[in-house]
Amino acid sequence: MDTALLVETVIKIVVILLVFSALAGFGTYFERKVLAFMQRRLGPMNVGPYGLLQIAADGIKLFTKEDIIPAGVVPLIFKIAPVITAATAFMAAAAIPFLPSFTIFGYEVHPIVADINIGILYVMGMMAVGLYGPLLGGLASNNKYSLISTARAVAVFISYEVVSGLAILAPLMMVGSLSLLDINDYQAGGITHWIAFSQPVAFILFWIAAFAETGRTPFHLIANDHELIDGFGTEYSGMRWGLFFIGEYANMFFISFVMAIMFLGGYGDGSVAGAFALLGKVAFFFFFFLWTRAAWPDVRPDQLMWLTWKVLMPLAVINVVITGFVLMF
Amino acid sequence: MNEQFYLPLVVITITTIAIPFLFHLSKYLGEKSMNTNNQNEVYESGIQNTHKDSFERFNVKYYLVAIIFVLFDVEILFMFPWALNLRELGLFGLIEMFVFMGLLGAGLIYIYKKGALKWT
């Protein structure tokens, strides 16, 4: 029993690691293609059919590149920081049900690593710990661009942590459970049962916070190319930079899964159509990240703080209060 | 029952920390490091490094945001158990939490008035 559980867990973890590392690669290809088409360009076309082998070429370059540790950095912290980003991103995946349960060769598989009863809190917590990657990496880099980027990253991350925490509070009051499986089952009755329709304010607030927590474009102050080079990643090269990269893209996929399961009904009743619907919703959220990058400029840091503390957070508190009254009377 | 929850968490923690370290080994596939002085300099967009190091002070506003965050995030964590047990706690729990949130709101207004969130 114990050994069976261990083997099953290890297989699941290896599959998740491989699938989402590969998806991070495909994510970059997809991002370049979408941005190119929105700007009336072709994007990567030379390497392989439609530039598809660009992923392999980039991967080989990233993996075999020379590992430079600049003079004046704090070596230990400099080396640990990218591992924190990548590790916490994948640890957050432990409580997310990626597909409904299915039976293969007479053995029932639950595509969730650990169905812990504090699921969503664990996922949000792990994503919050991921902040230590940019924080430690930027501080240890001994580079002024990295330092500014780190200060901004911390301010953005922790401000939007408050908003996302308050935003998921209102749906949790309705569901009464923190487990993502229970939240999914609550919405099993079809499209009219989706939490996005009963909690539209919470949905929009969490969506905005998701952009901030993954550092995507309207809030891409962390590595604003024209003023901060590559932010906290400026001094990193090769696989160390690649780990930051994998962590960032894996985070985008995982937060898309969380949004699809929490607000858009997840896999519904667990049929095959439901599984494909979940993947479709995740693909939509991921595409929306790229779409926003093509369509919107970055905001200033002070505008960002103004938006969080003076608009989004009061809205979230009012949403919780109204939900409480509606549930009670 | 408990091991079903926590054994996978321990395993995923160990694996996800170990595998990024294993990824680092791939650098031995590529060329060997030249380790020259110019290569190891701090990146400054092409100009020579003008200051000794970057371990220096920056704007106090960032620290203020961090302190305010600690305040509000702890209060949100208090709300999670309440949100899950809302139906059992009933009207009494609802009013009690709204008093707590009123204090939170008053604190937010005080922070506005003090200008701690003003970025100029």
Task: Characterise this structure.
The complex is a heterodimer of chains A (329) and B (120). Chain A is mainly alpha-helical and 329 residues long. Chain A has one domain. Helices cover 69% and strands 2% of the residues of chain A. Chain A has helices spanning 2-38, 54-64, 75-92, 119-129, 132-140, 144-175, 180-186, 195-198, 200-214, 225-228, 238-263, 272-295, 301-328; strands at residues 102-104, 107-109. In chain A, strands 1-2 form a two-stranded antiparallel sheet. In chain A, strand 1 (102-104) and strand 2 (107-109) form a beta hairpin. Chain A is globular and about 60 Å long. The model of chain A has no long low-confidence stretch (mean pLDDT 84). Chain B is mainly alpha-helical and 120 residues long. Chain B has a domain at 59-120. Chain B has helices at residues 2-23, 61-84, 86-114. Chain B starts with a helix and ends in a 6-residue tail after the last helix. The model of chain B has no long low-confidence stretch (mean pLDDT 79). At the A-B interface, helix 1, helix 3, helix 6, helix 11 and helix 13 of A face helix 1, helix 2 and helix 3 of B.
